[in-house]
Amino acid sequence: MKIIVMMKQVANKDAILRINKEGKWIEEADLSFEV
Fold first, then answer.
1. 1-5: long-range contacts (C-beta < 8 A, 24 or more apart)?
2. What DSSP letter does each residue of 1-35 carry, written as one string?
3. What pLDDT, in 10s, does the model give residues 1-35?
């Protein structure tokens, strides 16, 4: 039997998301991430 576990790294649920200067993505410099 084979078991596959999928994991995803996401921004912390209490994080404040800011749009980057280009306006196309979030600014990731000050974010903390969790799995």
1. none
2. ---------EE-TTPPP-B-TTSSSB--TT--EE-
3. 999 999 999 988 888 899 989 999 988 888 888 88
